[in-house]
Structure formats: structure tokens, C-alpha cells
Write a structure and sequence with these properties.
This protein has two domains: about 5-135, PurM-like, N-terminal domain (60s Ribosomal Protein L30, Chain: A), CATH 3.30.1330; about 140-250, Phosphoribosyl-aminoimidazole Synthetase, Chain A, domain 2, CATH 3.90.650. Helices cover about 30% and strands about 25% of the residues. The chain has helices at about 5-10, 55-75, 95-110, 160-165, 175-185, 190-200, 230-240; strands spanning about 35-45, 80-90, 115-120, 125-135, 150-155, 205, 220-225, 245-250, 260, 265. β2, α3 (about 95-110) and β3 form a beta-alpha-beta unit. It is globular. The structure holds adenosine-5'-diphosphate and magnesium ion. The site of adenosine-5'-diphosphate has 13 residues, from β2 and β3.
Length: about 280
């Protein structure tokens, strides 16, 4: 059986590339790029709450980082570094091998570097802190929407919830639809490239990990942009190879969501996003 230190050395240690000091010391050391703002985010995936026992470890490695990259994307940040705190019930090398493969494949695709973490024994839980950078003044903040802005959605929402319902036996999808929806659930593609291209184009942005109205786990971006930026938003979507759809408009007044059907008639909606304590 591997010791904690052997486990870290074998599965979670890669040579530092952009960090001044990576895994191995009490702290990692970073040289913040001159003039840029740091964007920091943290997300946890825990067994039973965020993934089912027996979830594919390669896909879990991917998703653990993807959910954090999605937050960087929703801020318009460039991914740089991340820290990984992992609790494991046992040392299962086949599981670790697959988890690390999924994690590092996505990390390499986005040029984000693992610089440290913590490894403990306990119920399977993965917490990642991701760090990105941004030019000052360009963050896509949630509070930046202006009356008159268009509201846009990247990709499409709902597939992940269908995949989960299928896995739980609540619905039966065709084999082809099941594979597609389960891949959306277990291996979401964080919209990093879109977030980067929306800097200076969009006003406000948020990732819809907990559902646009219901469902959840989609990791799409909802963002606003001034009506005279429609062509620029569409160009950003094309450049990032992600569909972007105009779904609404920001009105002046107290914040409230008004949902209209195709004919423009109001639809009643309950707040349906996921809340851990309700
Ligand atoms: P400390 O006792 O100082 O907290 P640890 O023994 O927890 O140190 O970790 C030793 C080194 O390994 C540290 O540099 C830490 O950042 C790194 N590390 C521990 N676990 C992980 C992990 N899962 N992924 C990446 N680095 C890790
Ligand atoms: Mg530690």
C-alpha cells in the first residue's frame, strides 16, 4: 500500500512550469503576472451529493477541475494554477490512475498547473481551488448587468439533468441519447474560451451550474451584453465554437425573473435551482 507521500509523488506531482515552486513544500510560490488581477474560486464534489458512488474516476477527475474552470470562465479569467484537496476512503491505485488521467488531461487542455494540495483519508471528497488572471476592469461580474442589456445563454441546458434521471432509473433514454446526456453530466466542457472572448464584450456573466430554471449541472454561461454588441457576442461564440442564444432582456426595477412562453405570455415559475440546505 502506498504511503500518503508516495501517493502524492506518484499521482499528483508534475514539474512546475509557470509556478516559481510547485508541489512539495509547505506552500507553492507564484509570481503574479505584473499588472494582472487574480481570480480565485473553490468548488467541492462529494460522493452522494455531487456524484454517485461508483462514478467513473476518469470522468470525476475531469469534472472536479471542470466545475472550477467554469467559474473562471464565468469571470472571463485565464486559467493559471490550481490546488487539490482530496479525501479518499482507501488507496485504490486503479482509481487514482484514472482520476489523475482525467484531471491532468483537462488541466493540460487549459494550460492550468497543479501547484499543491492536501491528501487525507475520509469519505470521497474532492475540493479544488483554481486561480486565474484578468486584466484589471475586465472581470464579468454578476452585478454589471444594465437595463436594456440582452441576456444570452451558451450551449443548451437540461441534458445533464436528463442523464442523471436516466442513471437513477427515473426515465429511460435511448442508448444514443443516454450516452450524450451522461457525458454532459460527467464530463462537462467548461466554457473557458467563450469567457475569455466575452471580456470587453459582455457586461455580467454567471455559470449556471445549479440550473437555469431547473435541472442543473450544465456548466453553461448566462451573460448580458448591450444590445449594440450582438454581432460581437455572435463572433465570440463562433470563435469559441459554442452556440450562443439570446434568451431575454434586463429590465429596470427590482430583480425578478419574468419567464414568457413563445407567444410572449407570462409563465409561472418556482425558484427551482438546487439548494444544499433545502
Ligand atoms: P503539509 O503537512 O505542509 O500540509 P502535506 O503533507 O499535506 O504538507 O503535503 C505535502 C506537499 O504535497 C505539499 O506541497 C502539498 O501542497 C502537496 N500535496 C498534498 N496533497 C496534494 C494533492 N492531492 N495534490 C497536489 N499536491 C498535494
Ligand atoms: Mg497538508
Amino acid at each position: 500500500m502506498l504511503s500518503e507521500f508516495e501517493l502524492i509523488a506518484k499521482y499528483f506531482t508534475r514539474p512546475a512550469r509557470t509556478a516559481a515552486l510547485g508541489v512539495g513544500d509547505d506552500c507553492a510560490l507564484l509570481r503574479p503576472p505584473a499588472g494582472l488581477v487574480l481570480a480565485l474560486t473553490i468548488d467541492t464534489l462529494s460522493e452522494n451529493t455531487h456524484f454517485l458512488p461508483g462514478a467513473d474516476p476518469r470522468r470525476l477527475g475531469h469534472k472536479s477541475l471542470a466545475v472550477n474552470l467554469s467559474d473562471l470562465a464565468a469571470m472571463g479569467a485565464d486559467p493559471r494554477w490550481f490546488l487539490l484537496a482530496i479525501a479518499l476512503p482507501d488507496v485504490d491505485e486503479a482509481w487514482l490512475e484514472a482520476f489523475a488521467a482525467g484531471l491532468f488531461a483537462l488541466a493540460e487542455a487549459h494550460a492550468i498547473e497543479l501547484i499543491g494540495g492536501d491528501t487525507t483519508r475520509g469519505p470521497r471528497t474532492i475540493t479544488i481551488t483554481a486561480i486565474g488572471t484578468l486584466p484589471p476592469g475586465y472581470a464579468l461580474r454578476r452585478d454589471a448587468a444594465q437595463a436594456g442589456d440582452d441576456v444570452w445563454l451558451s450551449g443548451a441546458t437540461g441534458s445533464a439533468a436528463l442523464g442523471l434521471a436516466h442513471l437513477k432509473g427515473k426515465i429511460a433514454l435511448t442508448a444514443e441519447a443516454a450516452a450524450r446526456c451522461i457525458a454532459r453530466l460527467e464530463q462537462p466542457a467548461p466554457r473557458v474560451a467563450l469567457g475569455q472572448r466575452l471580456r470587453g464584450v459582455a457586461a455580467a456573466a454567471i455559470d449556471v451550474s445549479d440550473g437555469l430554471l431547473a435541472g442543473g449541472d450544465d456548466y453553461e454561461l448566462v451573460f448580458t451584453a448591450a444590445a449594440d454588441r450582438r454581432a460581437a457576442v455572435e463572433a465570440a461564440g463562433r470563435a469559441a465554437n459554442v452556440a450562443v442564444t439570446r434568451i431575454g432582456r434586463i429590465l429596470a426595477g427590482a430583480p425578478e425573473v419574468r419567464l414568457l412562453d413563445r407567444a410572449g405570455k407570462p409563465l409561472r415559475v418556482e425558484p427551482l435551482g438546487f439548494d444544499h440546505f433545502r
